[in-house]
Amino acid sequence: MAKRKRKKCQGSKIQQVKDYQVDEYVPYIMGIEVSILRAFGMNTDLRDGEVRQALRDLIVDLKESDMPIEKHIAVLSTRSGIKDNCGLVKQLILEGLILIFETHPVIEEEDAIGILKMINYSVGSWGVGMHGQGYLEHINGVFSEMTTAMQQLAPDEFTDFLGV
Asked: Which of 44, 55, 76, 135 would be 126's cystine partner, CB 3.0–4.6 Å?
């Protein structure tokens, strides 16, 4: 898939905005969304607003760091004390990113922040307010459909699908 860039107007200046909805970033996006879905599976009282807050907190944490992203994420993930749903979501996203970085190239901090912002925007567009679960129900449905489709594949089709 070719890279597309959107232009964002800022006063009289036009600024290029990187598009993260390309094949290169799919593993990172899916890994983060699976982590969010894990949090929802662990606590069905989780709300879109708490997911958005967790994403915003992670964005701030990454922006304030002067460490390489993989080290910073490792440090953040070792902080104990999950006190609420927001903390649970953050912890699972961090753990998910650590796993992704074991099998995929470590992305730049700017790209991680861009992906988190994109997902945060998506949560906001699906949500029906801070107390809704529109986004959570959406990704739950998407991943359920994917799982069902994969279960229906014959073993040779499954390996072809995975490219093995």
From this structure: 135
